[in-house]
């Protein structure tokens, strides 16, 4: 991240530094999301642990320049407060990032999808 600067770094620079993004989305500006996840390979009693869960969200303007950088780590994801009373669907840049972070939060809390499988199997 030390190699990138807002209003200076362009799309080509980002691809050279980080490679292709994990996810892309277009709204007013392009949003590129890079994900780094590491899970332990040791199966102590069948349990695997999420070690690293970093998310880098980059916003790029119509000229191809970086305009905004947001970085979230595993602890940041746990702190994100989600409004459970919200029922309306609003499509836009904020809802995309919100939905993406909600999905990542679920993966942090249950990286192997064990809880979902238990519910589906009736266990």
How does this model look, in words?
With 123 residues, this protein is an alpha+beta fold. It has one domain (11-121). It has 4 helices and 4 strands, in the order H-E-E-E-E-H-H-H. Strands 1-2-3-4 form a 4-stranded antiparallel β-sheet. It starts with 10 loop residues before the first helix and ends with a helix. The model has no long low-confidence stretch (mean pLDDT 78).
Task: List key phrases describing it.
alpha+beta; 123 residues; 26% strand; single chain; 4 strands; 32% helix
Brief sketch in words of this structure:
With 123 residues, the protein is of the alpha+beta class.
Write the layout of secondary structure elements.
Elements: H1 11-18, E1 23-26, E2 30-39, E3 50-60, E4 66-72, H2 74-79, H3 93-109, H4 114-121
Antiparallel strand pairs: 1-2, 2-3, 3-4
The oligomeric status of these chains comes to single chain
Indicate the proportion of strand residues.
25-35%
Distance between the termini: 44 Å
Rg from Cα = 17 Å
| Proportion in helices | 25-40%
Largest sheet: spatial strand order: 1-2-3-4
**What string gives the helices and strands in order?**
HEEEEHHH
* Average pLDDT metric: 78
What does the main sheet amount to?
A: 4 strands, antiparallel
Put simply, the count of helices is 4
- Total beta strands: 4
User: Which class best fits the helix and strand makeup?
Assistant: alpha+beta
Outline the low-pLDDT stretches: none
The shape is globular
When the domains are counted, the total is 1
């Amino acid at each position: 991240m030390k190699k990138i600067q807002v209003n200076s770094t362009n799309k080509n620079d980002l691809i050279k530094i980080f490679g292709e993004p994990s996810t892309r989305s277009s709204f007013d500006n392009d949003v590129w999301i890079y994900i780094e996840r590491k899970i332990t390979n040791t199966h102590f009693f069948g349990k695997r642990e999420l070690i690293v869960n970093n998310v880098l969200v980059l916003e790029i303007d119509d000229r191809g320049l970086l305009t905004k950088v947001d970085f979230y780590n595993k602890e940041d994801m746990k702190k994100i407060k989600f409004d459970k009373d919200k029922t309306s669907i609003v499509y836009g840049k904020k809802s995309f990032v919100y939905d993406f972070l909600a999905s990542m939060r679920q993966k942090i809390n249950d990286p192997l999808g064990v809880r979902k499988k238990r519910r589906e199997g009736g266990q």
